[in-house]
């Protein structure tokens, strides 16, 4: 069947036909809206009601290219080079994970519990910078620092801060060889470190395994809390008394994380479930 894409309606029909055997209908609709918005610049009501609107002839070729890449399993966020996270535009690439809705829940919890916060925030394993940038955008009085071992991730995070017009200090650093003098004391520490155990790879989708950076996802089964233990160790030095610690966690390791924080001098330790009713966030307050 020949391709003839001239209107918004044609785009929808073409993408639905091309992706029918790969994605569920609801996901195809979401992907289609993102593609139309990115390729044509249309958004909002135009996506819903302008089905007969003509598109630029050059858009047809780009739509066909995107669908070809999608059929290979490549995530749409990597194809388009960006995604939306907590109302911020976040550029992503092979050096960074694609931000998840669960991580938006982490940001939402922090903002709800720290309204008007004006202290220092450190985000360990910042990746694309999505957490640090969303916090900086919504807590203008905060001084936010993001740290990552990947130079590619740090460069992307800096670009994202400029894109969203926020001030965040991004630093290349290895938490296992950390220079405490490189940052100031923190009043709040947040991290979404690697937490998927190697044995859990079998349950993950092919597009994640084939395209997202494994170093930002996986930990060995024999030491699944290695990053958390190290960050808690760093927090012993840089987090002020009464400061708060927030982690995104593996749903299967909530009890282990409670023991880690409780035994490390934290009170008010609590695991928070995500929208799918899975243990996803843990928080605690450093004792004086």
Task: Outline the low-pLDDT stretches.
Answer: none
Helix content: 40-55%
- Please indicate the count of domains: 2
What CATH calls the topology of the largest domain is: Rossmann fold
Class of secondary structure makeup? alpha/beta
Strand segment tally = 11
- Overall 3D form: elongated
Which range does the strand content fall in?
Answer: 15-25%
Highest-level CATH class of the largest domain: Alpha Beta
The CA-CA distance between the termini, in Å, is 70 Å
What's the Cα radius of gyration?
A: 21 Å
Summarize model confidence as the mean pLDDT: 90
Give me the side-by-side strand order of the main sheet. Answer: 5-4-3-6-9-11-10
Note the run of SSEs as H and E: HHHHHEEHEHEHEEEHEHEHEE
- Quick one: biggest sheet? 7 strands, mixed
Please give the count of helices.
11
CATH architecture of the largest domain, by name, is 3-Layer(aba) Sandwich
Structural write-up:
There is one protein chain. The protein has 288 residues and is an alpha/beta fold. Helices cover 40% and strands 21% of the residues. The chain has eleven helices and eleven strands. The chain has helices spanning 8-19, 25-40, 45-49, 57-71, 76-80, 101-113, 130-138, 151-163, 206-211, 226-238, 254-262, and strands spanning 82-85, 88-91, 120-124, 143-148, 168-172, 186-191, 196-197, 218-219, 239-248, 266-273, 279-286. The strands form three sheets. It has a seven-stranded mixed sheet with strand order 5-4-3-6-9-11-10, sandwiched between helices. Strands 1-2 form a two-stranded antiparallel ribbon. Helix 1 packs across helix 2 and helix 1 packs parallel to helix 4.
């Amino acid at each position: 069947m020949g391709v003839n894409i001239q209107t918004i309606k044609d785009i929808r029909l073409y993408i639905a036909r091309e992706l029918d055997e790969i994605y569920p209908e609801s996901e195809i609709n979401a992907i289609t809206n993102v593609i139309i918005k990115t390729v044509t610049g249309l958004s909002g009501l135009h996506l819903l009601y302008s089905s007969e609107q003509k598109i630029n002839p050059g858009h047809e070729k780009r739509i066909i290219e995107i669908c070809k890449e999608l059929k290979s399993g490549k995530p749409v966020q990597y194809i388009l080079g960006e995604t939306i996270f907590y109302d911020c535009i976040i550029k992503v690439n092979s050096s960074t994970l694609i931000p998840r809705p669960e991580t938006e829940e982490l940001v939402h919890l922090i903002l709800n519990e720290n309204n008007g916060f004006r202290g220092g925030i450190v985000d360990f394993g910042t990746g694309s910078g999505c957490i640090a940038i969303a916090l900086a955008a919504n807590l203008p009085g905060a001084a936010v620092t993001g740290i990552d071992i990947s130079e590619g991730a740090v460069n992307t995070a800096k670009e994202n801060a400029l894109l969203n017009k926020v001030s965040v200090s991004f630093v290349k650093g290895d938490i296992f060889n950390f220079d405490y003098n490189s940052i100031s004391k923190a009043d709040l520490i947040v991290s979404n470190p690697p937490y998927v155990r190697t044995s859990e790879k079998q349950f993950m989708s092919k597009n994640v395994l084939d395209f997202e950076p494994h170093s930002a996802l996986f930990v060995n089964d024999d030491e699944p809390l290695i990053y958390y233990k190290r960050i808690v160790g760093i927090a012993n030095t840089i987090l002020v008394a009464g400061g708060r610690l927030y982690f995104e966690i593996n749903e299967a390791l909530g009890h282990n994380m409670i023991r880690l924080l409780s035994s490390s001098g934290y009170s008010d330790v609590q695991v928070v479930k995500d929208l799918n009713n899975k243990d996803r966030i843990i928080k605690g307050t450093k004792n004086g």
